Amino acid sequence: MRTRSDVERFLLPLGTAALAIVVWSLAVRLTHTTVLPSPLKVASALRELAGRGVLWRYVGDSLRRVATGYSLALVLGVPAGLALGWNPALASAFNPVIQMARPISPLAWMPLAILWFGVSEAAPGFLIFLGAFFPIVVASMNGVRSVPAMYLQAGRNFGLSTPRLLARVVFPAALPQILVGLRIALGIAWLVVVAAEMIAVDSGLGYLIIDSRNAGKRYDLVVAGMLLIGAIGLVLDLFARRLERLRTVRWGFQGETA
Amino acid sequence: MRRLLPFSATAALLLVWFLAARRQTSGLFPDPLQVLNGLLELLRRGLLAKYVVASLFRVSWGYLLAVLTAVPLGLLLGWYRRGERALNPLLQLLRPISPLAWIPISILWFGVGDLAAIFLIFLASFLPLTVAAMNAVRNVPSTLLNAGRNFGLSNPRLLASVILPAALPQLIVALRISLGVAWLVVVAAEMIAVNSGLGFLIVDARNAGNRYDLVVAGMVMIGLIGLVLDLGMRQLERMKAVRWGYGS
Amino acid sequence: MTPPPKVSIRDLSMRFPTDGSHIEVLSSIDLEVKDGELVCILGPSGCGKSTLLNVVGGFLKATGGAVLIDGREVAGPDPRRIFVFQERGVFPWLTVEGNVGFGLFRLAAGERAERIAHYVKLVGLSGFENAYPQELSGGMKQRLEVARALAVNPDVLFLDEPFGALDSITRLVMRSELLRIRRAEKKTILFVTHDIDESVQLADRVVVMSTRPATIRRIVDIDMPHPRDLSAPRYIELRDMLFEEIGLAHKI
Questions:
Q1: C-alpha–C-alpha distance, residues A18 and B192, integer Å
Q2: b/e burial code for range A93-106 (CB count within 10 A of at least 16 → b)
């Protein structure tokens, strides 16, 4: 329970944000720098993008690519993780491959992606899939592994067959951890899409950033793009956290902070 | 029999890879043997060592800088709730911005080279580490803090003797994860912003002649080194001073 | 002619492999439990009583001897004999209703709803049908677990130190609740505990176990009618008998 008022809760961050903007614009004004745009310039850049109709199109493109790559990772990754968590033999069999593939940045797969898919929408989609797939698999696997034996025993006691047990006990019990993995994977997918768009395609927020610089040193557009990326990423994260508050999974998050 | 399973599964996958590569029509995708030869070639030409050192160098600097700034800041923010409440939304806003989105700015400020890459790695590690350090402090059970105060510890002493050791397990996990992220970022940064290193190798090998065997060789090296870094950090988690913090 | 025993444990032994050799946890257990009896298995922690319960319930396979329930050998877990653990056993992702109805998936919707309502009421959780376990107290969660077990209408209930995590006042309340529920629904109950008072308060018979390898030291008939007066001389007598059997001093 908070002892300080809720007003402080809002005023303080708002105040700091306002302060940051003031410092930012002062820094630009005082150093007469040409390299960092002032907040006003960035705001007008955002308006310009909206006016050209480019803003929503780019945002939509980036989100769309995330959606395709991420949904594929979810649909394949959760069952894979559940299987690996349930069957220790499978897990130990695939563990070396997973541990080797995990540290390879999804971007490093770019040349292979282009080789396999050409310069198309499939290439960034593949990278996003890769980026999201491993966290989802690992989280699902760990979720299954940490289901207390008591729940499994109770399920068997009530006469549940293995498929029923997996559906009615293992999956719900593992769901909190799976959701955390899904949220982290969503964040990674958002990071990857921006990076992928810098290299392989001609639309989207990542492209906006690289192109604005290359095509005319429009750093106001660059920073505008960056802020947009941050804002959308934050919204995605908040939305994912909402899911964690549903009552059927909230039990798994007792005593957790940010 | 169980012990053979990882080896046999990996061997089976290598076999599938080999057959798939042989069957393709474009002839560009390398099979495992070609990749191995590629690695040896890089070793002979001295490029492997050079690029690995370059990547590790950048990671080390960027990561260490981040650790030295983020951990104290995070600890402080975790302790002074006001500071945390003030800065937290800002941190949360900046966090989802891919470090790579900072590339144009970093090239602008630092030019194409090591500094730009180090800056990107620093960025990628700084924010998550700050947040993690903050949370680690917040999660220290109040019973421990009360016990410390009961024995008459002043605030600085409390920080050093109670908060830091209690927060250490979570902190080390965060350090390990951040190192992994830093390794991912260095590769990505090298693909875009510099002229040496394993990330550069991947892009260059393709651009300068479709040497996909070198591309995949580079990927394998990246995976290996990332794995070694991760395993090394996990060893830290086995120290007695922190092992208690890792449940069952 | 006397009816056959509900549960028949014959020369049961249980050994577990450890690195190199074996460790014998249970040794030559012979016990018969009549239909509707409440038998307490009493012993210090770690002596193997939970193992015994797990074998009888079909979760472990005995390495020697046999367990028969209703004359047939126990081959595995079965909804006719339900375990009740400490309150941690309730499923946190289901409401009270969801938990109570968990084992009733083979019933038609109408009958299922009826049964759920009946048992929610029986254990005293009326009004909390849509609550989640995290919103309930320890005692309430324990009742929930009992309701879930009873809902499938088992013949035998196994309770493994179910009240262990509750505070001592709630424990007293729960014990009388258990007896009340037992009066309403006659079940055979095997109840593992390390609490001497608990065994004297609840059981028809108390089976005192030795330390590992566990055998039956003694079976004590608790010949007091319910409700049992905790200050009655007979109660204290029986309790002292058990104290001695376990080997504990009378004064601290």
A1: 34
A2: bbbeebbbbbbbbb
Contact with chain C for residue A152, Cβ under 8 A? no
**What are the start-end ranges of the H helices in B80-163?**
81-94, 103-110, 114-138, 142-150, 155-158
For residues B138-166, one letter each, b for 16 or more C-beta atoms within 10 angstroms of the residue's C-beta and e for the rest, the string is: bbbeeeeeeebeeeebeeeebbeebbbeb
Q: Which residues of A touch B183 (CB under 8 A)?
A: 103, 105
Q: Which residues from B are below 8 Å from A232, CB to CB?
A: 96
Chains C and B touch (3+ CB pairs under 8 A): no
- What are the chain B neighbours of A118 within 8 Å (beta carbons)? none
Residue C218: how many other CB atoms lie within 10 Å: 15
- How many helices (H) and strands (E) are present in chain B, helices listed first? 12, 0
The pLDDT-based confidence of C188 (bands split at 50, 70, 90) is very high
B88/A258 touch (CB, cutoff 8 Å), yes or no: yes
The one-letter amino acid code at A55 reads L
* Interchain pair A17, B105: CB under 8 A: no
Q: How does the average pLDDT of chain A come out, rounded?
A: 85
Residue ranges in chain B whose pLDDT is less than 70: 1-2, 247-248
- Cα B94 to Cα B97: distance, rounded to the nearest angstrom: 6
User: What pLDDT is attached to residue A233?
Assistant: 86
Closest A-chain CA to B25: A116
Tell me whether residues A153 and C59 touch, CB distance under 8 A: yes
Q: What is the DSSP string of B109-128?
A: HH-SSHHHHHHHHHHHHHHH
pTM greater than 0.90: no
C27 within 8 A of C11, measured Cβ to Cβ: no
CB-based contact A110:A196 (threshold 8 Å): yes
Strand partners, A252: none
* DSSP characters over C95-111: -HHHHHTGGGTTS-HHH
Rounded to the nearest angstrom, the gap between the alpha carbon of residue B142 and the centroid of all alpha carbons in its chain is: 32
CA dihedral A67, A70, A72, A76 (to 10 degrees): -150
